[in-house]
TrEMBL record:
One of its GO terms (cellular component) is cytoplasm. The keyword Repeat applies. Keywords: Leucine-rich repeat, Repeat. InterPro entries: Leu-rich_rpt (IPR001611), LRR_dom_sf (IPR032675). This is Leucine Rich Repeat family protein. Coiled coil: none annotated. It comes from Wuchereria bancrofti.
């Protein structure tokens, strides 16, 4: 997802927008964004948030609108500091 070179530049970002990129997964490179507070992953092909967002402890706003997400099982354990979560336009049928 993110190029590994110039890691220090990625780690200083506080807001990132990865919308409209046809992303299918969130890989371990996302952990390079350790200071990010606001992330837009809308309008992609994500089915899950995976396990890598939980390392972004500064993340308070996450936009996952218009993806292919169906299940939110155990997300509260992975997104502990998120205050604003946008999920409009997904296929969620229940909040577990």
């Amino acid at each position: 997802m993110l190029p590994i070179e110039n890691q220090e530049k990625w780690s200083s970002l506080e807001e990132v927008d990865f919308s409209f990129n046809e992303l299918e997964e969130i890989d371990e490179s996302i952990s390079l964004l350790n200071l990010v507070r606001k992330m837009n992953l809308s309008h992609n092909l994500l089915r899950s948030i995976g396990d890598h967002l939980q390392h972004l402890t500064m993340l308070t706003e996450l936009n996952l609108s218009h993806n292919a997400i169906e299940d939110l099982d155990l997300w509260y354990m992975k997104l502990g500091n998120v205050k604003r979560l946008y999920l409009v336009g997904n296929k969620i049928s229940a909040l577990n």
